[in-house]
Structure formats: C-alpha cells, structure tokens
Write a structure and sequence with these properties.
The structure holds two protein chains of two kinds.
Chain A: H1 3-35, H2 38-69, H3 73-105, H4 112-117, H5 120-139, H6 143-173, H7 178-210
Chain B: E1 5-14, E2 17-27, E3 32-36, H1 43-47, E4 60-68, E5 71-72, H2 80-86, E6 87-90, H3 101-111, H4 117-130, H5 134-137, H6 150-163, E7 168-172, H7 180-193, E8 198-202, H8 206-212, E9 215-220, E10 223-229, H9 230-235, H10 240-246
Parallel strand pairs in B: 3-8, 3-9, 6-7, 7-8
Antiparallel strand pairs in B: 1-2, 1-4, 4-5, 9-10
The chains are: A mainly alpha, B alpha/beta.
Chain lengths: 222, 251
C-alpha cells in the first residue's frame, strides 16, 4: 500500500466514523421525540460539537492530501467527494440538532395521533434508512445502492407535500395543539432535507466511482 | 525528544561568497526533512555539512555549531570516517561501483571490517530488502550493477548506504534523474525507511517534498526563510516568499 493509499484509507475511516455519529444523532432525536426524553435531546445538542470538530478534521485532511499528494483521477474524485459528503453530513448533524431543540422547547409530549397522521415516525425511519444506505454504498463502492436513494428521496418529498393538507385539518380540529402541529411541520421539513442531503451524497458516490456528474439532471437521466 | 541534527548560527563561505547565513535548525530522529529552494539557495551546501562533504571543496570556510547525534562534528579530532559511516549519502545520479550487484554492497562491509562470509551475505540480502530491490535482483547478484535500470541502480546505492547501518541518510535530489515509476518507488522507499533512519533530502520537486517529508525547510539566497511541518508549509506558509516559491511564482 502506497503512502497516498494509506492517507486515503485513513480519510475514508474518518468520514465513516462521522457518518455513523451523524446517523446516531438523527436516530436519537427520533427516540427522544417518541419518548419525549429531554435529556436525550440535550445529549444530541451537546454531541453536535463533536460532529463539527469532525467536519473540521476531515476538511483539514482533504486540504493536506490536495496540497501534499496532488491526487489525480479516481484519487482526486475520492477526495473531492469526501469533501462534499463532509459538508452534507455536517448539515444532517445540524438538522438533528434542530430537531432536538424542538423537543426541548415543547412543553408536553407530542400527540401520538399527530405523529401518526403526519407520518413523522415513518419519515424518520425512512430518513435514517436512506442515510444508512448511502453509507453502505460508500463503504462498498455500490453505485446501484446509491442510485436507489433517488427514488427513496421522492417518498420523503411526497410525505412532506401531503403533510400540509393533513396538518391544516389537524389544527382545525385541535386548535389547542397548534404549536405542536407547527413544530411537527418544521420537523418534517427538516427530515425532507435529510433526504436531499442523502441524494447529494449519492451523487458524490457515483461521481467518485463512475466519474459521472449527475447534478442538475432530471431523475430520468439518473 | 532530542534532535539528531542541530545547527546553530551556521555560516558557510565559498571564498568571499556567503552561501549560508546564520542557519538555525533542529532535525528530529526518524523523520524526513526536505530542503527546498531555487538553485543556488544553499540547500545542497547545507545538506553536505552533515557528513563534511564540503571539506572536499577548496576555499570553503564554516562558522557556527553543527551537532550530529550529540557530537560537534566540526571540532578538532573528529573521526570523519566514523561520521560518514553514521551519516550515509545518496547522490543525484546513481553511482554504483563497476562491480557485481553483490559486491556493490559487500565492498563497503569489508572496508568496514566485516569479514565473515555468511554475515556479509545476510547483510547484502537485508540491505537489498530494505531498499525494496531484493525481489528484483536476488537471481542476478553476480551480474554487473550497470545492467540494472537507473531506478534500480539508485535503490542499489541506497542499499549500499544502508548496509553500513547509518542513523542518518542524506539524499541530494535522489530521484531527479529517474522516470516517474522509479521516482515513485524511491519515494515509497523513503517513506518506509524513516521508521529506522533519519532522512534529509534536497529536492527541486515540490510535490516530492510534499509527498515524502514530515518537515520542510525553504532556503532562499542562503537564508532559511521558513522551516516547519510540511503540512503547514504546503497549506499555510507563513512567509510570502515561501508561498510564492511553492506556488511556482518565482524560482
């Protein structure tokens, strides 16, 4: 294994570690929402600092590899992809922090019926599962799995669009729970953005492995 | 950790011309230090201080302290042969002896008093393995060293230097006469060797300095402009002159 290979492997380990931490953050906010566990939400907010530190470390390591090794071809694409995936993961970390914040602000546990009709938990599970899929696609260089993410993201988009109608109806019938309804609306918007970030990550994985640029193309051509 | 090489206020003159000006630097053991800078900046003169190769040039005078492995190497009574055993050197162009591959390494051992045949054979094999050349030459040890490619010859020269068990290896543009594949092999070798040796390398190839070294020293007009962690030098150089040189804006 060459010196550059060692550096690239180390970079891959670092980004995977960050990926798993971000996945755990998102999962913890789901648990905190269901169980209304404010301590767990606080833990997520505190751990966000670690995610940020990891982002800076990966940024710095990418910068060093560019400066010291002048990577080309697949090595260059790998470092470029990691640099962008790093930003996407950090944003998912921010989303998890934002979701945790809602749990701290709200005074009473979320209404189970509200969570059910808005399909919030389903959306959480789907977002977590997509994040896991892109991680597996990255680890195993599986572009087929990465491509599967585009379709799955559409499902999140669909839940997000439908939630407007559902929430209008819910708030009309439960005016005392308007605040909860609005927080859930924001949570769904955030989870929809997790899907978008995962879609961006999938594009980066395909760029790195197949040297194909899928950005700004319609879903059909992807 | 104690530095293995320390220079304090070192000045070097070629007659009236001052090639090095007040150089202070400490080189740590088991690291690779790259000396970079434009032609005539003094980097090779500085490298050649550590095994007193400059002594061979007429009109050279040196002031300041140069300490290698705890010893002031320019004090009176210093054993220069022992110093050069401790501080090996590899030059720009491969310079194997006009002998067999085996003899290129065995010769230095015999000169240094090793007479046991089995011991010599073991050392030859070990040195060639360390230089990542054994697999390529093990079946032709009796052939002339000149039959090897340029890259192989250079690795043979490195093996020859390693056989004497130095603690420091000086390399003066060791890959500048080689093709890219041979260069990559030499660079990987340098990376491997730092586990057991301290390496100081002069290079004109900036990318090479980035790839192989832990520390980089930038020389300009005989002055040490900047010395530090290679990552820092190549990403956030402190001095404008360093930045201009490594980005190819002068030199």
């Amino acid at each position: 294994m060459t010196h550059l290979d060692e550096e690239l492997l180390q970079l891959k380990k670092e980004i995977i570690e960050m990926w798993k931490l971000v996945g755990l953050q998102l999962h913890k906010t789901q648990v905190a929402l269901i169980t209304f566990d404010k301590d767990l939400a606080r833990e997520v907010m505190a751990t966000e600092k670690r995610v940020n530190a990891m982002e800076l470390k990966v940024d710095r390591d990418c910068e060093n590899i560019f400066a010291l090794f002048n990577p080309v071809a697949v090595d260059l694409r790998f470092v470029l992809a990691v640099l962008k995936i790093n930003s996407n993961l950090e944003r998912i970390g921010d989303i998890a922090e934002g979701l945790a914040r809602f749990i701290l602000i709200v005074e009473n546990p979320f209404d189970d019926y509200l969570l059910e009709v808005t399909r919030t938990i389903l959306m959480y599970e789907e977002a977590n599962s997509i994040l896991e899929d892109v991680l597996n696609a990255f680890e195993n260089e599986d572009t087929k799995l990465a491509r599967g993410v585009f379709k799955r993201d559409e499902y999140l988009d669909e839940i997000n669009i439908q939630c407007n109608t559902v929430l209008v109806e819910y708030i009309k019938n439960n005016p005392d729970k308007t605040e909860q309804g609005l927080y859930i609306l924001s949570a769904i918007r955030k989870l929809e953005r997790v899907g978008d970030q995962c879609k961006n990550i999938a594009e980066e994985i395909i760029f790195y492995i197949e040297a194909k640029v899928l950005k700004h193309r319609g879903n059909i051509t992807k | 950790m104690t530095p293995i090489i320390t220079t304090r206020f070192v000045n070097l003159f070629y007659n009236e011309f001052q090639a090095l000006k007040n150089i202070n630097m400490a080189i740590m053991p088991n690291t690779v230090t790259a000396l970079i800078g434009p032609s005539g900046c003094g980097k090779s003169s500085y490298l050649r201080l550590f095994n007193r190769m400059n002594d061979l040039i007429d009109g050279v005078s040196i002031t300041g302290d140069i300490m290698v492995d705890g010893e002031m190497i320019y004090s009176k009574g210093i054993d220069i042969v022992a110093l050069r055993r401790k501080v090996g050197m590899v030059f720009q162009k491969p310079n194997p002896f006009p002998k067999t591959i085996f003899e290129n390494i065995a010769y230095g051992l015999r000169v240094n008093g090793v007479t046991d045949k089995k011991r010599i054979e073991e050392k030859v094999e070990f040195s060639l393995q360390q230089a990542a050349l054994w697999e390529e030459v093990k079946d032709k040890l009796k052939k002339s060293a000149f039959e090897l490619s340029g890259g192989q010859q250079q690795r043979l020269c490195i093996a020859r230097a390693l056989a004497i068990e130095p603690s420091i290896i000086l390399m003066d543009e060791p890959a500048s006469a080689l093709d890219p594949i041979s260069t990559a092999k030499i660079e990987e070798l340098i990376y491997e060797l730092k586990r057991n040796y301290t390496i100081v390398i002069v290079t004109h190839n900036m990318q090479q300095a980035g790839r192989v070294s832990d520390y980089t020293a930038f020389f300009y007009l005989g002055e040490l402009i900047e010395f530090g962690d290679t990552k820092e030098i190549f990403t956030h150089p402190k001095d404008k002159k360093t930045q201009n040189y490594i980005t190819g804006r002068f030199g």
